[in-house]
Structure formats: structure tokens, C-alpha cells
Design goal:
2 copies of one chain form a homodimer.
Chain A: E1 4-5, H1 17-25, H2 30-37, E2 42-46, E3 51-53, E4 62-67, E5 70-75, E6 81-87, E7 92-93, E8 106-109, E9 114-119, H3 123-130, H4 132-158, H5 161-178, E10 186-188, H6 193-200, H7 204-216, E11 220-223, E12 226-229, H8 232-239, H9 244-247, H10 258-261
Antiparallel strand pairs in A: 1-2, 2-9, 3-8, 4-7, 4-9, 5-6, 5-8, 10-12, 11-12
Helix pairs in contact in A: 3-4, 4-5, 5-7, 5-8, 6-7
Chain A binds a DNA duplex (30 and 30 nucleotides) through helix 7.
Chain lengths: 262, 262
DNA sequence: TTTCGACTATATCTTATGAAATACAAATTA
DNA sequence: TAATTTGTATTTCATAAGATATAGTCGAAA
């Protein structure tokens, strides 16, 4: 795979999504920004609907999503697949590549192409030793991903199809909001109903039924690749949506951490 | 909460489970062992069937499970709960406490009491800066937990009750095997059928049906708190069990990591 | 403009799983 | 020892979701 060198000369340029995300919880220092830009030197584009990492292969690189979506999944003998989680702009694919170079689950692109930046994960060690706060932010990101997967478990385990669907749409909406790429109550989702079904553990027919129901009740509206959440308050009620990890991220305060006070 | 000081004078003592786990993938150096023992200075005991951490509370401590089981869960308005994951001996509860002091999901003990060691998560920063390989091992542990949750998503999303049950039992069995506290094909599980139901997104009645079916087919056997896996090969076939992260952990090799070669 | 393929929509029938009720068995407590 | 609680076992019935089939829709290619 060939990687193109991209140029972000100054931090005055529009921040890449990972920095937007970090900056959202805590303003970054000039030098931290420059350090993070080192992870953004090489970019590549993956075609839509393409398997990008295959379960079992060895690839000791990490990737930052710049544009487009990807998903991690597992294929089953039945021919079905289960989507484990989505990677949206600002998310890191294979954040543990340093210690787990063997890919545990395949990663593929959705119905839009994907632009990622590639970095050698051992650069992180150097980065963290110079800027310990970046280690904190990276850890915070991992904690967020953990919480996001926990929500996926709760959806699949104890929510009805109806609740699941509302819940997932709300979560995607809020994750996109943090990196500031959606409007008031609408977002662009490069997904098919088949992918939604594989995410929520439903059949294609049933996700269709459920989306139609939500539409008929004027809770959502779906066009080509755009999704409107028409009544977020009511959707939240239906979905029992109360995600801590997204609402309270502004509270990160490194002053409490002795080893970073100096 | 009061913590009792515990004493492990020399590494010749029997390793605590976290060290057993680390040592299983890579032999630890004498000084690394001593460093890790700093995380094991204070221990406490939590009664069985007790909520240990409550969703929303602030508790910037991490805990290492020494003995007994705990689980992380979410309570729903319906009165149901969904178990997200289990903490077995050697697992760390709140591994991200440093950056996420607000507890996202409640943690409770199962039907046996729990012994944990408590440590200040910012000790990790110091530890990792002196012994970078410990950072690698910690990261490996996080990667493993991520994979374990991914398996939970797959079970809930695309497996039948029958498959789910077989799969979970196999995973618990293998996780316990790493820390060496089970026999050939049996393990002690301080679980009720209600907890299993809440883990696998099933009703109490249905998990009972399913367990009975597995027993009738001579695949498992359950007594008081002991579970036998009578035909692991067949169970693996049924469950489509092929967990990378557990089978291939011996392969961790830090020689490949430039920044740790020196 | 037609054809093609991918996605969405809907109906019909089937089945896995849930809910409610009840019995039993074992462990705790009085 | 009886009384109470807690967990397991099983039945009967209801229903959410799956499977299969078929048709509409829409954009891309030709």
C-alpha cells in the first residue's frame, strides 16, 4: 500500500478530526498540536465497500479516520455478519496495533470511500513520554470507545428492535456532533439497511419495518444517505438514551492528576 | 472504605493473578515484578451480591481482582439488567479511572465475595515511564478486554440462545485457564441462572431451557457452583468458537518494537 | 431510453424466545 | 425443626422477529 504525504503546515489550518475531538474536551497547546500532526503525515484512500483489514492478518499500523466511515465486524458460518463498532472521522482504527499486531476482527468501508492517516504505533510511546497529556487524551479516547461498545452490548442484549434502532441513531448523531460535521438535527450516514441490520442483530426485513415505523410516527426521516432526527427528545425517551460518556466529556481536568501538575 | 495492607515480601511468593497473566505471555523481570507489586499493596473485600461501583459516582481508583468475580452492568427502566462483561481474577476494574473518574456503568459482585487490590491510577504513569514494557503489557490487557467485549457483541447480535450459551461458557473457561485456577475441563463459576440470562440477553426461563438441553446432550454438566465442559471440541463447533485473542497471546514479542529494543 | 443491479418496501408464514404461573429443591434463618 | 428465602425446573400460551418471496425504486451504465 502506498501512502501519500499530506501537508498541514500550520495549526491555523482546519484541525483534522482527531484534534477537533481532543480540543473539544481540553484546549490543546501549540506544541501538542504539532506533535499530533506527526501522526497525520501519511494518508491513503480506501475505496467504498472494501475490506481494509482482514481478521488474522498481521499489520502493525494504526489509522486515523479523516473522512468517511468504516466498521469492524465478524463473519459467521451462516453467512451473516455482526458489526461490532463504527469508526467515524477522528476515530483510531487498531489503537492497540503496537501490542496486538494481529488483527482480531476485519474492518471494511461502508458505502462511501474512506480517507485515513497511517502511523507507526510505536511513535506513540515517544509522543507520550514528551507530552504526557497526550497519553491522557489517548486513554480518554480508549475509554470512550469502551463505553460505546458497552452501549452496543446493552442495545443487543436488552432492547427491542424499535429501541435499538432509535438508540443507535442517537449515538451516531452525537458522536458526529463532537467533531462538528452534522447540522442541527440531521446527519449524513453512508449506510445501507443491510449494514444497520448487521449492526443491530436484526434481519433486513425487520430493520426496514422498524425504520418505517419510526418514520410513520414522525420521529425520523430518511432520504438517500441523509438521516433526520425529527424529535430528539422523544427518541431519547424511547431509547432510554442517557449516555454518560458523551455528555460529560467536558469535565476532563488534568489538574487533579498529581503527576501532570508540574 | 478501609484498605488492609497486604504483604508480598518476595516474588518467590505465589504470583497474584495479574502477574500470572502477564507472565503467561512474557516472562517478567525481577524489577518489573517488584514494580507491579506496588499496585498490590492495599486490598479490600467486598461482600457477595453487592454493588461495588455505582453508575455516575466519581471514584478515581483502579482495582485488581484477586479472588472472586465481579460484573459490569446497566439497569434498565423495565427492571431488567444487561451484563456487559465479567471481571475475573487478574482483571482490572476501572482501567481508565485516571482519565474517566466518573463511573460509566455499575459494577457488582456475583454470588461469591470479592477480594481486590486498590491502586491510584496515576501510579501507572510513573510505572510506565520507568518500565515501558509494563505499558505494553497493560495495553495488551486492554486490547484483550476489547476483544472480549467484541465477542459479547457477536454473541448477542448473531448467535442463537444455544450457541450463545456454549460460547460464553467456553470463553469463561479459557479466561480462567490463563490464570491457572481451573482443572482439566471444569471450573468454578459463582453465577446464578439469572446472571447468565442477564449476560446473554435471555429470559431466566430460556437460559434454563438451554442449559438443560446442553446437559441432556452430554455437552456440559452443572452442579452447585461447578461447571463441567464434557465435550469441548463439540462445544467449540456448536459455538463457532475461534477466539484469536486468547489462543495466540504467547506471540507477544517486544523485540519488534524499536523504542523498546534499547 | 432501456437495461441492469443494488437497495428499499411489503405480505405471508414460521419459529425462537418471552411472560406468567407453578412446583420443587436447597440453603438460611428463626 | 419449622419457616422463609432463593434458585432451579417445567408447562402453557403469546409475540417479536426471522425466512422467504415478490415487487417497487432509483441511479449507473450502455
Amino acid at each position: 500500500m502506498k501512502y501519500k504525504l499530506i501537508s498541514y503546515q500550520s495549526p491555523n489550518d482546519d484541525f483534522p478530526p482527531l484534534l477537533k475531538k481532543f480540543n473539544y474536551i481540553q484546549p490543546l497547546a501549540e506544541e501538542e498540536i504539532l506533535a499530533l500532526m506527526k501522526l497525520h503525515q501519511y494518508s491513503t484512500i480506501i475505496d467504498k465497500e472494501t475490506v481494509f483489514l482482514e481478521q488474522g492478518e498481521v499489520r502493525n499500523k494504526s489509522f486515523i479516520v479523516m473522512e468517511g466511515w468504516a466498521y469492524r465486524y465478524s463473519s459467521l458460518e451462516s453467512g451473516n455478519q455482526q458489526i461490532i463498532n463504527y469508526y467515524l472521522p477522528g476515530d483510531v482504527i487498531s489503537p492497540f496495533a503496537l501490542v496486538m499486531p494481529k488483527v482480531s476482527y476485519s474492518v471494511a468501508t461502508t458505502s462511501s470511500r474512506l480517507q485515513v492517516c497511517v502511523f507507526e504505533p510505536d511513535v506513540l510511546i515517544e509522543l507520550f513520554s514528551i507530552y504526557p497529556r497526550l497519553a491522557i487524551l489517548y486513554g480518554w479516547m480508549l475509554g470512550r470507545e469502551d463505553a460505546s461498545m458497552a452501549e452496543q452490548v446493552i442495545r443487543l442484549g436488552r432492547h427491542s428492535a424499535y429501541k435499538r434502532t432509535a438508540h443507535l441513531l442517537l449515538e451516531l448523531f452525537h458522536r458526529l456532533k463532537v467533531i462538528g460535521i452534522n447540522d442541527e438535527n440531521t446527519f449524513h450516514a453512508p449506510l445501507t439497511q443491510q449494514l444497520l441490520a448487521d449492526t443491530l442483530g436484526l434481519s433486513l426485513v425487520h430493520i426496514n419495518r422498524t425504520l418505517k415505523k419510526l418514520q410513520k410516527e414522525n420521529l425520523i426521516n430518511i432520504s438517500a444517505k441523509e438521516i433526520w432526527l425529527l424529535d430528539i427528545t422523544k427518541l431519547k425517551q424511547i431509547a432510554e438514551y442517557r449516555i454518560y460518556y458523551l455528555d460529560e466529556i467536558k469535565k476532563l481536568n488534568t489538574a487533579n492528576i498529581p503527576s501532570l501538575a508540574a
